[in-house]
Design goal:
The chain is an alpha+beta fold and about 725 residues long. The chain starts with a strand and ends in a 6-residue tail after the last strand.
Length: about 725
């Protein structure tokens, strides 16, 4: 008889399955296949990879069923495979603990048999079948966990890049003796939960006794969702969320400690969002890669060290209130032209993988299955956390070799539907392209929001330090009213190459050392209709090196407590020609009772080296389609994020007119009803310093300030169609 022993939250539970159909396992830990395997079989670098030790004497639990593993038989969301009237399903004795809504519930357990690869769900799969307080049945996958520790060791190789290379590097040690199975789950209701664990192999299946835990109280805001109206984000508790942040695609040699430092600094300056690549760069953040690299063991044999590092990264983001979008794959892994990593990719048949060409990844059945397995592990281990805001399947997928839009869309449908059925939290899903839109993939119901990536330069000697006008950016970043999905500016930057940010005899340094284009891009994101700010790509060589985190402060304070969703703004207008001259542009989001605006001097860019010597005065603004009555118009400094002036206004026949106070560079405003909530404050002269530095930058490069060209004619006004609750 084969016995599965489970210890859940300190309580011994037992799984029992009859001997028939189970593959016997030799002491080496290499399991025999019960049925013929696929034509391609992943192999560990040094088998046996894992052996799960037997436990002590066990009491027999209730036998459930014994049959080969079939995906159709797996627990699914909304179904309970158990007969509640059968005996033997009493909860094990033990102290009950109370959890909070949206707090992580975590349990460990052991299986008393050996597996060649516990990461392979074709070999062994464990799921929890959970009944919520409302009676809904959910399924959550469990995963194999190996505890690790990290330390710093002296760097051996030469320091080539002082911005990235450190004298100490992270080393991770795994503790295989204490490896275990683990369940992580986040309750989204209050009340009593019950669950069983279901273990399945290719030959048989068994289940545990029933376990109970109680949920009372609330912790956090829940998981991210798309708001009604389709433009913005919100949380389960109904609160509005506007991402403000940058990319932090990978940490440097100090690993998760370096990442934690980014999170702490970003939080200090008001950011709330980071985009992370699960790539192979810098000792890696992907759990699956070529054995040629440190910590990796090939396809299907996940890195315990990297999985542990991702735990630490997620925990640091949770601690500092930074929401993450994890990008699962990047284009270079399946490209021989753009940032190519194909030569070391474990899917490459030269490395023992199943693929002859990168493009086969989208259609080869074994490659698709291996990716599904990896997503299962990601969902099981990290899907508990509301801080993990979204999965992004690809970064710039259209840069992969021989890209096929049709094959890519079919792949996204398969994977999005699979993850939707696997993840009880229904976490948001996205993907990204470099060349515009792929409407076929973005139109998939399971793809929740779209993205654009924008880089600016000019084909001239000064390509690295020119920026397209803000007006052009506005027109490049539109909310897609056809799809009615949010648009996020997932990447934004000056130039496509890190060489723009390197000092040296052939460099074009300095490139905007004060971060003017960073400042403008944050406000562009808000007033373009994007669901968040533009997320700068150059997080290390530029943002960190020049200490530019302070640019997050102004927009963070400006939006604190605001709600831009349709029921907060009514019919939102974008790209309106409220005030447009060759020198000044004004953009607004306006509803019936509130309005937000940004007034911008067109010379306040790197291309034109700053506005004139005197502050801009007398800019008139006219807003229409408002509800009649008294209002306040409040003007905000865009760097310090504080109100600097306030005036009374009155809306008559839906129209209000006012004049912007003197400003340099840019200024924001709010129109609202009710009493003011903030004190008028003095600000630091950041705009004056920025303009002065622009002039000095121009002189160092032998350039003269030049007037901006006339702006293009305004686009047709865009209005969101009314929606019904």
């Amino acid at each position: 008889m084969m016995i599965f022993a489970l210890v859940v939250a300190g309580v011994v539970l037992e799984l029992v399955a009859r001997d028939r159909g189970f593959a016997s396992t030799q002491e080496t830990g290499a399991a025999k296949a019960a049925t013929p395997g696929p034509t391609f079989t992943p192999k560990p670098a040094n088998p046996p990879y894992y052996k799960v030790a037997r436990t002590g004497p066990l009491r027999v639990g209730e036998i459930r069923d014994n049959k080969p593993l079939d995906p159709a038989d797996l627990p699914r969301q909304g179904t309970d495979p158990f007969d509640e009237t059968e005996p033997g399903d009493e909860a094990e004795p033990g102290a009950k603990k109370t959890w909070k809504q949206w707090e992580k519930y975590e349990a460990t357990f052991t299986l008393s048999w050996s597996f060649a690869n516990p990461y392979d769900p074709d070999e062994v799969m464990v799921d929890a079948v959970i009944t919520t307080p409302s009676g809904k049945v959910e399924s959550a996958p469990a995963f194999w966990y190996v505890p690790c520790t990290s330390r710093f060791v002296d760097r051996v190789e030469e320091v080539n890049d002082p911005d990235e290379d450190t004298l100490e590097i992270e080393a991770i040690d795994k503790d295989t003796a204490n490896a275990t199975w683990m369940l992580r789950y986040t309750p989204r209701e209050q009340g009593e939960y019950t669950y069983r664990l279901v273990a399945r192999t290719p030959a048989a299946s068994a289940y545990s006794y029933r376990e109970t835990f109680h949920v009372s109280g609330v912790e956090g805001r829940g998981f991210g969702r798309v708001s009604r109206g389709g433009r913005y984000f919100e949380f389960d508790d109904g609160s509005f969320f506007f991402p403000i942040g940058q990319n932090v695609a990978w940490p440097n040699d100090r690993g998760w400690v370096d990442f934690a430092a980014y999170m702490a600094t970003m939080n200090e300056y008001g950011a709330n969002w980071a985009r992370v690549w699960l790539s192979s760069y810098f000792r890696g953040l992907t759990i699956e890669w070529s054995p040629k690299n440190e910590y990796y063991h090939g396809l299907g044999f996940y890195s315990a060290e990297i999985a542990w590092k991702l735990d630490r990264i997620l925990e640091s983001a949770e601690k500092h209130n930074i929401y993450l979008m994890w990008c699962i794959q990047q284009h270079g892994q399946f490209s021989t032209r753009f940032n190519p990593c194909w030569d070391e990719n474990p899917y490459n048949n030269r490395n023992g993988g199943p693929l002859e060409r990168p493009a086969d990844f989208f259609t080869h059945p074994e490659a698709r299955k291996l990716f599904r397995h990896r997503m299962r592990y990601y969902v099981a281990r990290y899907g508990y956390s509301p801080t993990l805001f979204a999965w992004e399947f690809w970064n710039e997928v259209d840069l992969t070799d021989r890209f096929s839009s049709a094959a890519c869309a079919a792949w996204h449908k398969e994977m999005a539907d699979y993850v939707r059925g696997l993840d009880p939290t229904r976490r948001l899903l996205s993907t990204s392209y470099i060349y515009g839109w792929d409407t076929e993939a973005y139109a998939l119901p399971a793809i929740d929001f779209t993205q654009v990536h924008i880089y600016h330069g000019a084909p001239s000697e000064f390509i690295g330090w020119r920026v397209k006008s803000v007006d052009e950016q506005m027109r490049n970043i539109k909310w897609d009213g056809t799809l009615r999905k949010p648009v996020l500016i997932g990447e934004y930057g000056l130039g496509h190459s890190q060489d723009y940010f390197r000092e040296g005899p052939n460099s074009r340094w300095p490139v905007d050392p004060d971060g003017l284009h960073v400042h403008n891009s944050l406000w562009v994101g808000l007033f373009s209709g994007s669901a968040g700010t533009a997320m700068n790509w150059w997080w290390d060589k530029y943002i960190r090196k020049n200490k530019l985190y302070g640019h997050f402060i102004g927009i963070s304070r400006y939006l604190d407590g605001e709600d831009l969703r349709p029921w907060g703004l009514g019919s939102v207008k974008l790209f309106d020609d409220f005030y447009r001259t060759p020198e000044v542009l004004t953009y607004v989001l306006v509803g019936r009772d509130r309005a937000y605006g940004w007034v911008f001097e067109t010379a306040y860019t790197l291309e034109h080296f700053g506005p004139g010597d005197s502050p801009r005065e007398g800019v008139p603004i006219t807003l229409t389609d408002l509800t009649d009555g008294d209002c306040w118009i409040e003007f905000w400094d865009t760097y310090d994020g504080v109100p600097v002036a306030r005036t009374r206004g009155h809306v008559s026949d839906g129209t209000v007119r006012f004049t912007v106070p003197a400003f340099r560079g840019d200024i924001a405003f709010k129109l609202y009803r009710g009493e003011p909530a903030a004190e008028i404050q003095e600000t630091t002269p950041i705009h004056d310093r920025m303009v002065r530095n622009l002039r000095e930058l121009a002189k160092r490069h032998g350039r003269d300030a030049k007037p901006p060209p006339p702006p293009p004619p305004p686009e047709q006004e865009f209005e969101e169609e009314p929606w019904e609750e």
